[in-house]
Amino acid sequence: MLSLKKGSLIRDLWELRCADDLTDDQLQWQDAAQKSWKSLMKRPDGKEVKDYLTAMRSGDTERHCWLVENEEAAIGAESMSPQLFCARAFRWPDLESAGDLQRLDGDALVCPSGDVRADGLVCCSPFHFARLLPVEEEALDAGRERRSERHSRRSTDTRLAQTQTVALPSSASVSHDSAISLSSSSRGWSGSLTADSYVSAFSATSTTADGRSSDSRSRRSSRDTAPVSRISINESPPWLMVRYGEFNSRVGKIERLSVPNLEVFYREEGHTVAPLDPEQVYALNLRTIKNRDRVRGVEDRQRKVGRGFLLWRKSYQSVHLYNRSQYAAYVQSPTLSHPASQQRVHKIPSGRSFKIFDRARAEQVKQWYERHQGGVPGALDLQCCRISLTSSWGRENPRHPTLLDCYCWLEVHFTFPSRS
């Protein structure tokens, strides 16, 4: 039998379940699930349940594993795993299958327990899971069917072939399909970018919001930009470079990461959320990035980022993004759309996980260009991904037709070591 104190804590924790915008069926399910909830929480002691409750109330929801017996929970005639039960009760009332969940263990570093521990217990914390957002990869052998479409867009493709998708220009030089671009012919660049040329391109050609060159900004970078140390546990080569920007300004410096994870967030000074392993995660707090010429409204958007997102690699073969923020994030990459089509901007809702880059897919896209256009256009960077925080962009968005019209964004460039 549950002690009076533990029983009260379990009831209080249940009160924090999803309660907004529920359908009648979902409300009925929660009513039937309350008894199973008490049974599920019989293993944790009172202190553990209190820790879960305290973390939930403070917003530090990822701090603890909810360790329970690996037994099915029965709700009427329906039975389900503890993971699905908690995910449906506390985060996604419309969730139907545990197959739509991705445990944030291993490379993601959020859940230290993994699937099933040696003692038979399993973590069912709904905040140690993401809801998978499927990647809709269009078959690349559809080139013949798209021939007429490519022909009609020949002028657009020609313009794209002359753009370099790695540096910040003035807004006047941005093509409709490329938010961050500059003329490769004017710079004399050709072929694919290396990590060093990527850094050189960013450093040499970026402009600020008021039109000044990056040289003037670099002279005061130590005063305007809070230093962020690069964390590395060894001398392994960098696999990721990241640049933060606001509207058509680059802000701060390019960071080259060797650690496997990137955490981007906005956190006020003195905030108590426990950080992830600093030996494995590069933490970028947007609050520490200073910009003397910051446009009005940017700081409010930064605050909306909140817990932000977590980005991690899997064995140098793919890169995944988990959106921790309450607001959607938006992603664009040459490998997420068919090469003959305009690049799509993908929406990643709160709590969703999305594969933003796949190395094998990038190779397939490269081969498609070689078959149909004799090579990758200009110096199009197939290992680049653009991320906007809280704002979408594109032709259908008159307020933000390009990424450079968004309040705050990041461009990430994957420089996987050749030996991997």
Question: Which structural traits does this protein have?
Answer:
alpha+beta; 420 residues; 6-stranded antiparallel sheet; 27% helix; 7-stranded mixed sheet; 21% strand
Q: Using the alpha-carbon principal axes, give the shape.
A: globular
Instruction: State the separation between the terminal residues, measured CA to CA.
Output: 54 Å
Which structural class matches the secondary elements?
alpha+beta
Strand element count? 19
Helix content: 25-40%
Radius of gyration: 24 Å
- Percent strand equals 15-25%
Descriptive overview:
The protein is of the alpha+beta class and 420 residues long. It contains twelve helices and 19 strands. A seven-stranded mixed beta sheet has the order 4-6-17-14-13-11-12. Strands 10-9-19-18-15-16 form a six-stranded antiparallel beta sheet. A hairpin with a 2-residue loop joins strand 2 and strand 3. It is globular, with a radius of gyration of 24 Å. The protein starts with a helix and ends in a 6-residue tail after the last strand.
SSE topology sketch:
Layout: H1 4-14, H2 24-40, H3 46-58, E1 67-69, E2 73-75, E3 78-80, H4 82-90, E4 101-103, E5 121-123, E6 129-132, H5 147-152, H6 154-161, E7 163-164, E8 182-183, H7 184-187, H8 195-205, H9 214-219, H10 221-224, E9 240-246, E10 249-257, E11 261-265, E12 281-285, H11 298-305, E13 309-314, E14 318-323, E15 329-332, E16 346-348, E17 352-358, H12 359-373, E18 384-389, E19 409-414
Parallel strand pairs: 6-17, 11-12
Antiparallel strand pairs: 1-5, 2-3, 4-6, 7-8, 9-10, 9-19, 11-13, 13-14, 14-17, 15-16, 15-18, 18-19
